[in-house]
Automatic annotation (TrEMBL), chains A, B:
Pfam families: Acetyltransf_1 (PF00583). Residues 156-169 have a biased composition (Polar residues). This is Uncharacterized N-acetyltransferase SAMN04488054_102262. It comes from Salibacterium qingdaonense. Residues 136-169 are annotated as: Disordered.
Amino acid sequence: MTQPEIKRLLVNFKTLEEFQNFKEVGVQELSMKEELQENIIENDSESPFYGIYYGDRLVARMCLYKIDAKFDFYFEPPQNYLELWKLEVLEPYRGRGFGEALVNYAKSFNLPVKTNARQRSDYFWEKMGFENVTYNPERDRGENPYVWYPEGVEPQEQSPVQSDMTPPE
Amino acid sequence: MTQPEIKRLLVNFKTLEEFQNFKEVGVQELSMKEELQENIIENDSESPFYGIYYGDRLVARMCLYKIDAKFDFYFEPPQNYLELWKLEVLEPYRGRGFGEALVNYAKSFNLPVKTNARQRSDYFWEKMGFENVTYNPERDRGENPYVWYPEGVEPQEQSPVQSDMTPPE
């Protein structure tokens, strides 16, 4: 099987239309749409989405964002890392390695990668070389973080959890 | 209508059983279960969940966690704040003000409150005095944050977004 080609998606109305085939339309897409409509960003600017086309149909996508080191509570030393989310392959195109290809692309930047794994997707992330981190409610607030460490990068140690929440009098 | 009583939920098997009636069983509950089974926390310790009982049935709940100031990128001055999530009222008990009562309880600590609002819940949060923040993908990573500012607390200014992500050669 040839490697599928990963494309950085452009901000335009065609992309937004393609997004309607995917499940999770959230604030990232809405913000893109608004900025496009209000000419805050240009048509065809580069978006934080990457995808795979099958013919001219977008069949897989992910959002990948470089997070500044000041927001980094996962990696040691603290550094810029990539947050990966909205990984999705359209139903009829699953089982062809498109999800794997996108995740491998994210890893190819050689920055640490973090994602919030859906329930029952642990097997997929472990297969991709990601590790579950020890859940820290203060940092993770209900998320299920899986991370990938490039060579030389370690987990960031977290101070013990405070649970001193005293209800008001 | 009398004000419903808000209880801090105890960590025990009864609470975990009640949780099965709610939609979103996530890592917070799983971590509670594990810690309970492995005796890392004691039976009947206080959990970060608060709820409302109707008779002896848990019918509404939320998770409320005090987040340390070092993780605060929402409020000025940076400070400890409360993250509210997993707000849910069981279907037959909706429309009785249980959700409002829980959110008001969160506000009564007089700390800033932040939540990641579900799509189409904007009206509820605005009614509760929360405000939408300007979406910053680096900080918000796909979330839809709504926040409540106590008196004297302001939005934290964010540095302009970097979108300098260059694919590897």
